[in-house]
Amino acid sequence: MHPLSDRPERFPTLRKAFLTGPGNGAREVRVLSSWPHKGRYVLKLEGVDSIDDAERLRDRELRITEAELAPLPEGSFYHHQLMGLRVADRAGGEVGVVEDVLETGAGAPILVIRGGEGETLVPLAVDFVKTVDLVGARMVIERPEYAGAD
């Protein structure tokens, strides 16, 4: 597996997780062992006893419970917490809903917001994201001004 965690040291002690499946469902799986291998981790899951069994799990995500997540500093969020938030601009105009968070490797992650105006890309940075209300499932942004826009 390719770890998306910022705490890969968790894998050797991981004993249960949730494997995603069709329709956004997930099932609990028991992790019997794990070890690092070429920048990734190999996990031995209960009931997965062959390469063919493992291949059937390709492109699935392995997740942990919310309670097992490390607390983040104030103003920081896990990507999954931002997914589905309704987004408005500072003037109160609806922009859309956060559909994805892209890691580009070149600075701040990018929020992909889809709404009535199509797709809006906004850096996940304090200059653009003004408020995040996880309880109210809402975010307020400063719309970016794109170079070359009329």
Describe this structure in words.
- The chain is mostly beta strands.
- It has 2 domains: 8-68, Elongation Factor Tu (Ef-tu), domain 3; 79-141, PRC-barrel domain (SH3 type barrels, Roll), CATH 2.30.30.
- Helices cover 6% and strands 39% of the residues.
- The protein contains 2 helices and 10 strands, in the order βββαβαββββββ.
- A 6-stranded mixed sheet has the order 8-7-6-5-10-9, with no helix packed on it.
- The longest helix has 5 residues, at 51-55.
- The chain is elongated.
- The mean pLDDT is 87.
Number of helices, where a helix is a run of at least 4 consecutive DSSP H or I residues: 2
Regions with little confidence, pLDDT below 50 for 5+ residues: none
CATH topology of the largest domain: SH3 type barrels
Rg from alpha-carbon coordinates: 19 Å
Number of domains: 2
What gap, in angstroms, lies between the N and C termini? 45 Å
- Strand order, sheet with most strands: 8-7-6-5-10-9
Silhouette: elongated
CATH architecture of the largest domain: Roll
